[in-house]
Design goal:
27% of the residues lie in helices and 24% in strands. The chain has 259 residues and is α+β, with helices and mostly antiparallel strands. Helix 2 packs across helix 6 and helix 3 packs across helix 4.
Length: 259
Amino acid sequence: MAAPHGLMMTAPDQPESAAEHGGSVVLGFGERSERIAAGTAFVIGRGADLSIGDNPYVHRRFLEVAQRDGVWWLTNIGSALTASVSSAEGAAQSWLAPGQSMPLVFRTTAVMFTGGSTMYEFSLTLESPVYEEPAGWRGAGDAENAAELLSPMQRILLTALAEPLLRDGDAGSARMRTTDEVAARLGWTPEKLERRLGRLCDKLSRKGVRGLRRSADARLGDAQRSRLAEIAVGARFVTVVDLELLTAFATEDVDVPAA
């Protein structure tokens, strides 16, 4: 999910040996499961093979899953939206911008994107994966890995931001919280939340995470907030386990260092 944040590429000509990695791919979106047969193409969008509803902020044709020379590719055929793509366990995480393609090499790939105030998540599971993740990898959500990157307070902040996805992600979509709602959940002012989100975006940007740079006036937009939530869930920086700590913090049942 090359480096974890550099997996995006344009589809090259595939060698003949790639054909051995054929087979179908199964798309999971909420309770829906769709088998995409080998040699075919499938489009996700507002009016496509997988219709995600009538959200006007989502392209009619946004993401395409297609097999070329035995290799399955995910392509962003939209013009504005981006998608966050990660391996199921968060071992690799990438950002798929308009016009870019990436091969589906893991057994299961998680895809997330935001349209307006709604966040969406679906999975793609290969019948014959090119690569198997090492047994024992627990993703960025592994306490030891996360501790190296996030402070306890930053972990709580990401959990509050991604809470709708963590609680309702099984439905395939969740409403993104406003800045005021996230601030209220944490018992902060919106200004305090903005400052802490800004510092977190700067920190992750320095680590090479794309899509988090602030504007010239240092303000954060909805795009950065949704990107943070997508990264938090996709790279397993936070999981449903962290919801308990968020609740304890929000009810003042736990003391967390301010760092």
